[in-house]
Amino acid sequence: MSTDAGRHVSRDADRQQMPEPMRRDVRLLGDLLGEVLRESGGQDLLDDVERLRLAVIAARHPPPPDDAPPGSAVSPDDGADLPGDEIADLAGDQIADLAGDEIAALVAGWPLDRAELVARAFTVYFHLTNLAEEQHRVRALRERDAGAAPVRESLASAVSEFRQEQGAEHLDELLARLRVHPVLTAHPTEARRRAVVTALRRISVLLAALDHARQDAAEQPEIRRKLREEIDLLWLTSPLRDRAMGPIDEVRTVMAAFDETLFLVAPVLYRALDEARRGQTEAHATPAASAVPAFLRFGSWVGADRDGNPFVTAQVTRETAVIQADHALRALENATTRIGRALTVHADAAPPGPDLTLALEAAETAHPELLADLEARSPQEPYRTYLLYLAQRLQATRLRHADLAYRGCAEFLADLRLVQDSLTQAGAVRQAFGELQHLIWQAETFGFHLAGLEIRQHSAVHARALREIQAGGPLSAETNEVLATFRAAGWIQDRFGVDACRRYVVSFTRSAADIAAVHELARRAMRSGRLPVLDVVPLFESGEDLRNATSVLDDMLALEPVAARLAANGRRVEVMLGYSDSAKELGPVSATLRLFDAQERLVRWAADREVTLTLFHGRGGALGRGGGPAGRAVLAQAPGSVDGRFKVTEQGEVIFARYGHQVIARRHLEQVTSAVLLASAPAVRERNAAAANRFRRIANQMEAAALRAYRDLVEAPGFAEWLARISPLEEISGLRIGSRPARRGIASAPVGLDDLRAIPWVFSWAQTRMNLPGWYGLGSGLAAVVGETGAGETGVGEMGAGETGVGETGAGAAGASRAGGLRAAQEAYRGWPLLAVLFDNAEMSLAKSDRRIAARYLALGGRDDLTAMVLAEYDLTRRLVLAVTGHERLLADRPVLSRAVTLRDPYVDALSHLQLRALNELRAAPQAGTGEGDSPVDREATGAQRDRLHRLLLLTVSGVAAGLQNTG
What we know:
Layout lengths: L2 H14 L3 H41 L16 H4 L9 H19 L3 H34 L9 H12 L1 H10 L1 E7 L8 H20 L6 H17 L10 H37 L15 E2 L13 H29 L11 H13 L1 H10 L4 H18 L9 H17 L3 H4 L2 H12 L5 E7 H13 L5 H20 L6 E5 L4 H14 L9 E6 L2 H5 L1 H9 L2 H10 L2 E7 H8 L1 H21 L3 E7 L11 H6 L9 E7 L1 H7 L2 H18 L2 H13 L1 H19 L4 H8 L31 H10 L10 H9 L4 H4 L17 H20 L1 H15 L3 H8 L5 H22 L9 H30 L11 H29 L4
Helix pairs in contact: 2-4, 2-5, 2-9, 2-39, 4-39, 5-8, 5-39, 5-40, 6-7, 6-10, 6-28, 8-9, 10-11, 10-17, 10-28, 11-14, 11-17, 11-19, 12-13, 13-14, 14-15, 15-17, 18-19, 18-20, 19-20, 20-22, 24-25, 30-33, 33-38, 35-36, 36-38, 39-40
């Protein structure tokens, strides 16, 4: 059997191993969608969808035998066994290219309204398939949790490993300082409308209900009827927004993650860690006070990040704080009411302690009518009475009734602990440390503010504002807004507490003067009031800024406001590292290695200056912006850079992918927390330090060549204009997926990459099916290590995509050198977690790419030189990554992910061909009114045609994002 044939079998095996429950759900949802399409658009629409579906399947795989049964409408089964883009022989490529031409002709022949409907059909199918995959993941996680033995990346496994190496005492020391701090951001990478997300959530609930109803046949017909109704509603719901989202829209959207998931999952995670710490025997014994603190903290940039977003104002930030507090107080009030109503402990069975008795008497004195009503409904039930009284106080706090309201969350926590202590003294320990402990954990985690608002602004904005103020003339609107922001921060702190809004992130920090400017502007803004407490966080993003970080921090510590803050907070400093912009500037290889080096220097700097350092990782959701499996990324961090503390951004579609379902959210947070525990162990620190020293030479050699290859591409003359032609870069803003402009300036003309945000940079490359930001340059870097010349110098792109041997055919010293270089690269991959994550993430990016489809996009730019450069680097990178990892095909060691990619590939192809049609015609058509002698009718017709093409393009952008399950 040939190597390619073996790959075909392996890819097919992935599909054949699809769990039956998931296959059943996908088939059911696909069949229901087929019914909806037939009812809505008639058999002709269904036939067109089917025609395209079979065509893209045939382009990837030989047609089935004549006697094969026909597939059902929009069913995955025919396409699910495709071998992907693994065909390496020339004949296979030629067949695929011919098939691609036929598909292009097919979609070009449809009227635009039919093309839109077909695009919507495939997009809805992806949404439904994603739900089926999510449901199966939930199913699998629940089965895993029901098992007896600790599983990989679980808290139980991490605690056991840490305790065996370090002992129970060191474990408790680590738990006491443990902090995991996700920060939700408003970066616009959630392409789905809120109405679509809500509809999908309803379908998800029905799909889960159907799982349970399969034991009761009588319930199934009604659930299926509701499913059909909801899928019909999803089909009838416009997938595109009619208006752009505003910052407050983003705030309200993110609140769903807190209300439905995070507030409920946090105490469950703490309980799991507590049980892991106590062990199986103790965990089932009499409950006792937990040694596990509320180690989660949540931050938010939503409604507070104004860097490049003129729509986030001081008033928006104030309103955001009010909305967040309302959600936090409602959640605490509901939980307190629920627990209070259930706590029907009689006074004779567990007499209240003296402190609780005094508290009840004080409440009765202050609010006699309220206490009389509560006691009448809860006779001789002091614990129930007091908790219901606390719920009333929370309501008063939310409604701002001063005589009954709490002054802050600390008062509420004191009351809860009063009840807990009284129950403990009375012997009702299960009630003391059960649901009541969960409520205490929730209050400690979320406070009355839900998440700490973190203001972010560009250093250049501060510099301009200071110059204006010092000049003494009238102030611009921008400067007045900067000053108003500090007053808003002070107002939020006065009303909701210091932790509600004390961090101020400075983008593009280049010197201590950028930090000093923030403190000076705060002083100027608060001339007649108390200065807000500010922890100013420098954000280092470019390669040069990463190199200079420690010297900037030295100068920062010398600033009087910073020194005063360090004295007050126990010498704690937070530093943010930007993954997105560094990757856009340097490419994935150089960015990864320079960020690691910067972390090493920062750890040494903090130790030398006796500072407790928290590194804030500004990672994106996509692999090209630092995304990827979070747990593995934590374990690959520089030695000593974690030490019990991990803070990271959660962006765009990642928020709902990770926090949209309670079971998945718990698993994600468990993976991150377990990784933080292990990364804080001396053994892991020593392993990473030894690996970094051992493989530093190889890494440096790889980085130099990778950076050269990346810069040769992005600095080529006309590159930015070429990217704008080959991708929907300029049209992405039409999706209205966020309030933030795609560029830091409002202008949308294609300028240099420096002005382009990292998100549309990654988003546009994903749409072209090239995923370039996740891998470009790695092939040239590996070629330097294994003794080959780079893709741009050798024309490696002409080699077959399936070739994996490096140095195998060489003779003499050159062949031996290449073989030795390959062995060295393989050892580095196996021995240094940082490089393992880099290579594995690049492999994932390559697997989500499609060379043949991408070549059609690249051809739109009319630059054969740039097209050849990109394709050559792709071929080189793919071949050498497979050689280094030892995998026979992409994702060979990750069958679940491989199956997901394989299932989607042909259907994403369908949307890509529709998108290519729209791009082709938009790029070729004149702008409305630009033709000489055009009549008003002609201009109107041209404008209408462009509008329809633009709409088709946006529909396919949304669909491809759903199919690939990532945007930016």
